Protein 1
Amino acid sequence: MKFLKWIIGIPVLLVVVAFLHYTLPGRDVVRIVGTDVKRMDIGSSSLFWAAPDAGTNKNWTRDVRFINAVWPNGEPRVYRNEDTDWGWPPYFKFDSSNITAQAQDLAKKEGDVWVAVTHYGWRIKLFTIFPNVISIEQVSGPNVFLIPWFDILFFLVLGLLGYLIFRTIRALKRKHVDPIVEGIDDFVDDVGENVEQATSEAQRRATKATGGFRRWKKRWFG
C-alpha cells in the first residue's frame, strides 16, 4: 500500500509541478533585437499556442508575432506574442499589437537596452514551441535583481488554501467519520466477544457431554 501511494503520488506531483511551471509567469532580462511576423500552421503542438488577436477568426493557419531577443551571454531568445483573450492561462492579454510596437521602439534605441520580459510557457525547439510574452519593462541592466512577487503571493495563497482544506477535512473526519469508525470497531468487538462466549459455551457443553458418555460407558462396559 505504501509503494502504491508513491507510484501514484510521484507522477501526480510531477504533473502539478510541470503545470505550474508552464502557467505561472516568469521574467527574463534580455536585450530585444527585433520583431517578426510569420505565417504558422498550428498542428500537433496547438496546446502550447494561444489564440489569434481578440475579435479575429480562429484559424489554425495564421500570422503570429514574434519578438527576437538575446541573453546577456549572447544566446538567442525568441518569444511569441499572442493574445490570451479570455482563455487559459487567465492573463486576459489583448494588447499583443501594443507590445510589438513597444518592442520595435526598444530595438531601435542606441546602446544596450535591457528589458524584463514577463512571459509564460516553454521554449522547446523540437516541437517549435515558444513562450508567450505578457509584458515588457525596461530595466537598468542585465544584472538587475527581480523579485517574483506574483509567484510568492500565489504560493502563499495556495499554501493557505491547502492548510484550510486540511483543517476542514480533519474537522469533518473527527466529527463525522471517527464516530462511525469507532461504532464499527465497537460492533466488531461485541461480535467477537459474543462469538468467543458462544464458542466457550459450546466447548464446555461438548466437554460435559463427552465426560457423561465416558462415565456411562465405564458403568456398563467396565
Note: Strands lie at 26-41, 61-70, 76-81, 114-120, 132-138.
Protein 2
Amino acid sequence: MATRANDSRGTTTNPARSGSRAAPRAADMRARRYDPAETKARVLAAAHMLFSRNGFAGTGTADIAREADVSEGSIFYHFGSKKALLQELGRRHGEAMIAAMEEGYALEDLEPGITVPRVLRFVRDNMVWEGADPDCADCGPKAALASNADAEPFYHAAKAVTTDWIKRHMQAALAKRGVTGVEVDIAASFTHHVVGDAIDRWLCAATPEEADRVERETVRYVRAASGYTLD
C-alpha cells in the first residue's frame, strides 16, 4: 500500500508530466468556458428553462447566472438587461414558429391551409412559452401574455418577427397569383391578431370538434384576407 501511494505521489508531482498535459487541458477548459458564443447560448438556455418554470417575474438575472454557471455581469455584457434577454428569446421563439410554418415550402407556395394548422400545433407543443395553462377553460396564451407586464418584451419581440413574416409571405403569395389591391401592412397586422385569438380558442376548446371548427374557420378567414377565392 505504501509503495502504491508513493508511486501515485510521484506521478502527480512530476512537473514534466503534469505541465505537459494538465496545463493545455486547463487552457482548453477556460477557452470553452469563456467563449462568448457558448456563454450566450448557456444564458439563453438557462433563461428559457427558468422563465418557463418560474415565470417571467419570478426569475431574476442572478437566478439565470447561477443556472448558466456564469457571472451575473456576463448577462449584462452579452444582453444589456433582463428586458433585452427577453426580447432575444422572443425573437428566437418567433423564428422557430416561422421555421415550423415554412418547412418544406417556398414562401410564395404557402397558403393558410398549411400555415394555420402548423402554427396551432407549434404553439401547442411550445405551451411552456405561451403562458397558458393546458387545462384552462376560460383563458389563453394571448391574454396571459398581454396581462403580464414582465412578459411584454418577449411577446412584442415575437409579434414583431412573426408579423413581418406574415407581410412578406402575403406579398410573395399575392404576387404569384397576380392579386392586387390588398393593403398588406394592414392585412398582416389583422391576420396576426386573428390567429392569436384563434390560438386561444383552439387551445381552450372544450371538445375536439370545437377545436376543429376553430381551425377550419381560421383557415377560411385568413384565406379571405389573403385574397383567395372562397369555395
Note: Residues 1-18, 26-32 have pLDDT under 50 and may be disordered.
Protein 3
Amino acid sequence: MSGVKILALMSVLALPTVAEAKPPLREVKEIDNELYYIAIANEISEYCPSISGRRLKAIGVMWDLRSKANKLGYSDKEIRAYVESDAEKDRMRAKGEAYLAQHGVSYDKPNSFCTLGRSEIERNSAIGVYLRAN
C-alpha cells in the first residue's frame, strides 16, 4: 500500500464518529418503567390508609435513575425537562389509571387501592417493593 493510501486511511479512521441521537427518556425503558412503578405505588399509598409508600427507597432509586441517565449521556437539564414535562405527567397518569382500572381499582372505592396494594406487596412486584402494609 502506498504511503498516500495509508495516510488517507489513517485520516479517515481518525475522524470522530458521529454520535447517535439519544432517544427521548420516555423510550429508555429501564428509567421510564421504574418511574411508572414508583408513581403507581405512590397513588396506592395516597388512597389506601393501611398502606404506606417506601419513600426513602423510592428516592434512592430515583437518584440511581438520574445517575443511569447521566451515564447514558443525558444532562441534568434534559432529565429535569422529562420529569417536569406536563405531557409526560399526563402520559404517565393515563398509563397508571389504565393499570389501576385493569386491576379493578376505582377512585370511588378507596378500599380497591388497598386490595391492589396488598396484592402487589404479597407478590413483591416491581410496584410492591415500594409499598409497606401499616
Note: The two ends are 76 Å apart (CA to CA).
Protein 4
Amino acid sequence: MKERQQIYILKYITTAVFGVVMFLFIGSCGKKDEKLVHMKFDPETMPSMVTDSAVQLISDSGKTRYKIAADVWEVYDKAKEPFSYFPEGFYLERFDDRFNVEATVIADTAWHYNAKSLWRVKGNVEVKNMQGHEFKSDELFWDQKTAKIYSDKYIEIKRGALELKGYGFESNQQMTDYRIMRPHDGRLPFEEGPVATDSVQLQSDSIQ
C-alpha cells in the first residue's frame, strides 16, 4: 500500500513539474513573439541583392564594352521597374572594338534602369573622352537605346585652353560630338574675358 502511495505521489510530482516547465516555456515563447518585428518586403525600397566592392565587365552584342566598379551595388530586380543602384560611388569605362577606353565616368551615385537601358549618374559627375576633353556636371543621363548622353543641369567642358559653360547638354555616347543648349559663359584661347553667348554656341556646336 505504501509503495502504491509513493508511486502515486511520484507521478503527481512529475506531472506537476512537467506542467510548470511547459507553462514557463509557453510563457517565454509568448514574450518573444511580442518582441518580434514583422517586416513586409517592399521591392521598391529593399534590394534583393547587395554586393560590396563590385567590379564587373559587361558585354554588348558579344563584345566587352563596359567595366563598372562600385563600393556598393544594390539590385532591385523585383521592383515594378527593375533597376540597379550604386549609392556610394560609381566608376565606368566604355571600350571600343579594340578594347581601348573611349570614355570614363565618375560620380557619387548612379542608377541603371534595365528595361529602358537608361543610366542616370548624379553628384560630382566627371566624364573624360579619348581626346582628353573633360566634362563636369551635377547630373547626366545616358540613353543606350538612342546612344545619347544629355542633361538639363549646369555643365562645364574643358578642352585644353578652351572652356565652355552653360545649361543643358547633348552628346553622342563617345562624348566626341556635343553641344551646350544654353551657353552663358566661356573662355577661348588667348582671350581674357568671357566670350559672347553666340560665339560659345558656335564653338560648342562645331566641336568634333
Note: Residues 2-28, 190-208 have pLDDT under 50 and may be disordered.
